Amino acid sequence: VYNGIDQKKFRKDNDSTIREQTRKKLGISPGAIVFLFVSFELKKKGIEPLVRAAGRLKQQGKDFHILVTGALPYSGLQRLIRQQCLEETVIFSGPCKTIHQMYAAGDVFTLPTYYDACSLSVIEAMVCGLPPITTETNGIAGILTHRQNGYVLSHPPTPQDIEQAMELMLDKEKRKKMAEAAQLLGREYSREKNHAAMLKICREAAVT
Known about the structure:
Elements: H1 16-26, E1 33-39, H2 47-59, E2 64-70, H3 75-83, E3 90-94, H4 99-105, E4 108-111, H5 120-127, E5 132-135, E6 151-153, H6 159-169, H7 172-186, H8 191-206
Parallel strand pairs: 1-2, 1-4, 2-3, 4-5, 5-6
């Protein structure tokens, strides 16, 4: 049984004002491509290989940002960002009570996690129109079709694999097509559907 989300709270917001205001607050230009990462467990969810992947892309002259929402950087991560010359590329918003605004500001959701039972944030991002990049050790990967509605990377996630997926997502047409497919899939996973499936299991267990 996969997780479900509040479909009324999380949806693609066509109001460009939210996107523009959030980006302006964070110092992100309107046309920049933003890879969003949401977690309070940075290491576990793969922030370090993501930063290394970003460093590789920057060496190619690619223009993008990584927006990290949740935990603030630890000293080792700050050092890695400096080593990769990404001080202007990686932006930390800190904890956020209005997460839908961060989804509105993003273009691609990145969670190259080492483990996740079934990430709610991936479904939330998909419903908000962000195609995901995640790993096979994230339970939600079971509903994704690689290269159709998201990228499912092998475990452990390598900077090379993450870089390749990110580079493909820099293409506007590919990103748009995958975003539409991800949004359609995400809409299938509501809290109501999750609750009904769990109740069905409980009832079956009760009569056996």
